[in-house]
Automatic annotation (TrEMBL):
Keywords: Cell projection, Cilium, Flagellum. The lineage of its organism: Bacteria, Pseudomonadati, Pseudomonadota, Gammaproteobacteria, Vibrionales. This is RNA polymerase sigma factor for flagellar operon. SUPFAM superfamilies: Sigma2 domain of RNA polymerase sigma factors. It comes from the Bacteria.
Amino acid sequence: MKTCNKSLIGLLEAGRRYGNIDDPNFPAFAVCRIRGSILDELRRLDWRSRKTRQQAHELNDVTRDLTKSLKRTPTEQEIIRALVPISRIITPDSTRPWRRKCRASTN
């Protein structure tokens, strides 16, 4: 029911903004406004942030691409390696110089 309401609100908003609803280009404009109104409502109802949604899409894309290229389900480690650039991976060894600097400054 809410989607129907948002469609109607989008159509009314499109007519108000466009002005001349008899113009042959109005239907294309109205479709964009209605679709936008529905998407705005769906985003409002979604508990996830835009960044979280984008990350979920990226995870799905990477998993699908790996499955296709490997011809099997990728492991978690393979997915992580594909998602995270090597320069951003923090290992115990990569933090050691930082630890040394902190110890040296406290002595």
